[in-house]
Amino acid sequence: MKNRKTTLRNIILSAALLTAMIGNATNGLHVNPKNNNKTIFTLNHVKSGNQLLIKDINGIILYKEQIKDSGTYSKGFDLTSLPNGSYVFEFEKDLEIKSFPFTVTLKNVVFSENETTIHKPYVSVKGNYFFVSKLALNNEPLDIKIYFHDESQLIYSEKIKDTKDIQKAFKLVPNVKGNYIIVLKANGREYYEHITL
Fold this sequence. Notes:
Radius of gyration: 23 Å
Number of helices: 1
Number of strands: 16
Largest sheet: 6 strands, antiparallel
Low-confidence stretches: 2-26, 30-34
Order of helices and strands: HEEEEEEEEEEEEEEEE
CATH architecture of the largest domain: Sandwich
Distance between the termini: 72 Å
CATH topology of the largest domain: Immunoglobulin-like
Structural class: mainly beta
Number of domains: 2
Strand content: over 45%
Helix content: 10-25%
């Protein structure tokens, strides 16, 4: 009986320790000790549909993968085969993009500690109203342009700046039916939303 209690206590203690380790785990990049050319890229709390990209300094996509399973993502990459230069891993979620920069020099891969997060703008539509929101922790500006039918008929333009929490509501005229294109520019990127009335 005493052995069962000790065994049960050890199992519970091990489960609690494992849960704490998993809960405190962070995203990471590390070299595979069995293969020095492989870099293991690990992300926690991913969702199916998130995307992982590798881009060069010019923004050209060299690798793109859509995450299939929710939970923890881990994969090995041989980054030493890339030409000398600066690159970035980008992990794109629903409302944010995390960037992990690295450089390759003579088959040597060095990761920067300057991991950054960009908060993407979000558009929600309700009837002939739509709402634009964006978290801008560094007061980065947001350009909003609204087009009717195609990008040649600009009907509204505004640049919002000097605020950390951007919230804007718009009302489209209900009797003007057609396609609207919302173009949002922030952090050097463009986002498109299409609305049909």
